[in-house]
Automatic annotation (TrEMBL):
<feature type="binding site">
    <location>
        <position position="87"/>
    </location>
    <ligand>
        <name>substrate</name>
    </ligand>
</feature>
<keyword id="KW-0456">Lyase</keyword>
<comment type="function">
    <text>Catalyzes the formation of methylglyoxal from dihydroxyacetone phosphate.</text>
</comment>
<comment type="similarity">
    <text>Belongs to the methylglyoxal synthase family.</text>
</comment>
<dbReference type="InterPro" id="IPR011607">
    <property type="entry name" value="MGS-like_dom"/>
</dbReference>
<dbReference type="InterPro" id="IPR004363">
    <property type="entry name" value="Methylgl_synth"/>
</dbReference>
<feature type="binding site">
    <location>
        <position position="12"/>
    </location>
    <ligand>
        <name>substrate</name>
    </ligand>
</feature>
<feature type="active site" description="Proton donor/acceptor">
    <location>
        <position position="60"/>
    </location>
</feature>
<dbReference type="InterPro" id="IPR036914">
    <property type="entry name" value="MGS-like_dom_sf"/>
</dbReference>
<dbReference type="InterPro" id="IPR018148">
    <property type="entry name" value="Methylglyoxal_synth_AS"/>
</dbReference>
<dbReference type="GO" id="GO:0008929">
    <property type="term" value="F:methylglyoxal synthase activity"/>
</dbReference>
<feature type="binding site">
    <location>
        <begin position="54"/>
        <end position="55"/>
    </location>
    <ligand>
        <name>substrate</name>
    </ligand>
</feature>
<feature type="domain" description="MGS-like">
    <location>
        <begin position="1"/>
        <end position="137"/>
    </location>
</feature>
<feature type="binding site">
    <location>
        <position position="8"/>
    </location>
    <ligand>
        <name>substrate</name>
    </ligand>
</feature>
<feature type="binding site">
    <location>
        <begin position="34"/>
        <end position="37"/>
    </location>
    <ligand>
        <name>substrate</name>
    </ligand>
</feature>
<protein>
    <recommendedName>
        <fullName>Methylglyoxal synthase</fullName>
        <ecNumber>4.2.3.3</ecNumber>
    </recommendedName>
</protein>
<dbReference type="Pfam" id="PF02142">
    <property type="entry name" value="MGS"/>
</dbReference>
Amino acid sequence: MRIALIAHDKKKNDMINFAVAYAPILKEHTLFATGTTGYKIHEATNLMIKRFQSGPLGGDQQIGALIAENEMDLVLFFRDPLTAQPHEPDVSALMRLCDVYQIPLATNVASAELFIRSLDRGDLDWRKIIDEREPQK
């Protein structure tokens, strides 16, 4: 699976702790992340991560482009719902793309754990269903 890891500033520690806890599962997949989040996860876990720009500098949009090209399977985006984000339109666009292209999106630790544990058990096969459908026009 191709998994994107994104976290707002106040949620970066949550993402790092999540990545440390689930490193044995995450290491079996292809990981992508926005700049600082990816750097901090790699520093804490030594996981191999393809890093993009930071979110406010276009990293969210870079991940969105992968979603639109059918190159992403799961997005874990730990959002800070209590702090205004200067790049909120990019965040909204990324979430909209997940909905349009049927990409599971976890926005907090609880939902991310459900996805990761299901992924580890082999319960998630929605991509087979999506990949078999007729191409969108």
